[in-house]
Predict the structure.
Amino acid sequence: MTTDKRDDRLTARGGSVQGTVQVAGDKSISHRAIMIGALADGVTRVEGFLAGEDCLATLAAFRSMGVRIEGPDAGRVTIHGVGREGLRAPEAPLDMGNSGTSMRLLAGLLAAQPFPSELTGDESLRRRPMGRVVSPLTSMGGQVAALGEEGRPPLRISPVGSLKGINYELPVASAQVKSAILLAGLYADGETCVTEPAPTRDHTERMLSAFGYPVRREGSRACLQGGARVQAADLSIPGDLSSAAFFLVAAAMVPGSDLLLEGVGINPTRRGALDILLAMGAHIELQNERTHGGEPVADLRVRGGELRGIEIPSHLVPLAIDEFPAIFVAAAAAEGRTVLRDAAELRVKESDRIQTMADGLQALGIAAVPLEDGLVIDGGPISGGRVDAHGDHRVAMAFAVASIAASGPISISGAAAIRTSFPDFLEVARAVGLRIEAENE
Ligand code: S3P
């Protein structure tokens, strides 16, 4: 999907971090708004939609299944819901680009449809494990085949008469797998319950509730009964804490910085990065806490100071799973050692984030030792240098903000994927005072 390579190489030259900005809309919530809005009866109006490539892949998939969607236009999207039985067979395989969320959640929804479909994606997505969704969907009676080696994409989905509810214990903490099962469960006979080994983001449960679909939550279990209808709702999507994390780190690690990030989602199942940075000594205040569309939101004020290395508590790992590239940069700038364990999931994200981050940090003169399930980083002086983001949006953005604490420019290749989750990253970065150039601009 990412064929335009104009900004595949960035050079970040540091700068300052000051001012007031808004970050891009939440990626996880934007995907779900399209999916659940499409299944609803009535018209759903969304504000704050993230027009990044990942969410646009979801949007295009629903258009090709007959859903009329207007926008995105300055974050506004209007979804003309077709109702729970209204999706039509797509004419061609659905291309999910780089987006694991699109592929896994859609696998659940499509397993329940009365038409065949196929899901594919870019090179990175075709390397990612899908057995974790294929297995529970098969137990529900679905026919989902992973056509790649060892349970990898593409996925071929064949229609079955009906699905049956399931009581599933997730072997890995994964909101994508939980959500795939719950979306299939909307169509299943009886009740579908998912129990998670540790809390993961609960946007699907919250959004279904906001759309009038009853979801029962008991401790670590989320349950729903198949067969009810979804009612259109208007939504305002908060800023993405995963995008804000790069600026939180940029500001927190340099004394003198002072930044206000407005309207950022602080859902308790997502706020691990805040808690980790606070434990590292970051000066972050939550201001003006409020609720938007069933999601907690705040303005985040962050001021620069000294950070210290910590042992990252295991229970925070699933709550900060997307923020580790940024947290590793904070660890590199911190005094002392930071140890992360129990985070093997990082190896199967858009890139192997343990290896890509360790390699990049080492190229910048930081002692970063990869472990099977984590990373040990000794903070120290960060030098300039050349790093490879391996087409991973969050790795690219992490190294761009690392330049704030570095003694020389950082040149980042494989950075075009930033458009998947934060298309206006460069504008926001420049607005707060970072000096970043994209090749051929
Ligand atoms: C997501 C869940 C997480 C996260 C991903 C988005 C979601 O993945 O890493 O970026 O929207 O449900 P896992 O649930 O596989 O950990």
Observations:
- The first helix runs from residue 27 to 39.
- The first strand starts at residue 10 and ends at 15.
- The chain has two domains: 9-25+238-438, 27-236.
